[in-house]
Amino acid sequence: MSLLEKLKSTGESVNRASWRTLDYAVDAYNHAYESHPRLTSYISAAVGTVGGDIIAKRFAEGENVELRDIAFTAGASIAQSYFYPKLIPLAEKIVNKPLIKKAFEKVRINTNWAKAITLTALFFPINMLYWNFLSLKNKSPININTNLEGAKTIAEASIPYLGVDYVVANKLDKKYALPVWSAAELGWNTYVALQNYVVKRLFGMS
Q1: Residue 87: other Cβ atoms inside 10 A
Q2: Which of 10, 134, 144, 177 is deepest in the core (most CB within 10 A)?
């Protein structure tokens, strides 16, 4: 067997194993959701919220994670697990309003992308509220400057999240929204942490 054939065979094996793992994870999630929907939704939200904050604080900012941090973000996950899935039908309802629908049609944005854009937009004020909640948790000042910084950070993150919201709004059952959003949050915070790490290494920042 040539090197190319070996690489192809290895890639196919990895691909099959990845799909089997994904199938197992989805089956396990479905079983947990059917048995304990509220608890499963909470855990799904908490994984991204608590885990994302740990990544951001410990690895992106280089600070220690305290029990206070976990308590705050775990508490926030209760509200997130309840309200976040409700944004999906709300976005669809808004997009179906004749005036809004006509506005999107004028700029040649189809219904699927309109739902995604609206869903992402609905998250903006909620994320601003959460930004201030994190400032309170971190004992940071809450003023116009910190809110402007938060708005800029959230706006930047909204670009990749728009793709995630497109999938959530159009391709998935609503019950999968929270784990997908959590995975996205973990991924984004990991990306930011790695970016900060590389910058510090390149410029010798401590």
Answers
A1: 20
A2: 177
3-state secondary structure 104-165: HHHCCCCHHHHHHHHHHHHHHHHHHHHHHHHHHHCCCCCCHHHHHHHHHHHHHHHHHHHHHH
CA atoms 59, 63, 65, 69: torsion sign: negative
Q: Which amino acid is at 23?
A: D
Nearest to 59 by CA among 186, 153, 202: 186
Structure tokens at 11: 């890639």
CA 55/CA 22 separation, integer angstroms: 24
Report the amino acid identity of residue 156.
Answer: E
Give helix 87-95 / helix 111-137 axis angle, nearest 10°. 140
- Calculate the CA dihedral of residues 170, 193, 70, 49 and round it to 10 degrees: 0
Tens digits of residue pLDDT in 37-83:
999 999 999 999 999 999 988 876 777 888 999 999 999 999 999 99
Angle, helix 111-137 to helix 67-83, in steps of 10 degrees: 150
SS3 state at 88: helix
Distance of CA 85 to the CA centre of its chain: 13
Rounded Cα gap, residues 109 and 5, in angstroms: 44
Task: Give the C-alpha separation, 53 to 39, whole Å.
Answer: 20
Rounded to whole angstroms, how far apart are CA atoms 37 and 5? 46
Give the angle 167-107-126 at the CA atoms, nearest 5°.
Answer: 50
pTM above 0.90, yes or no: no
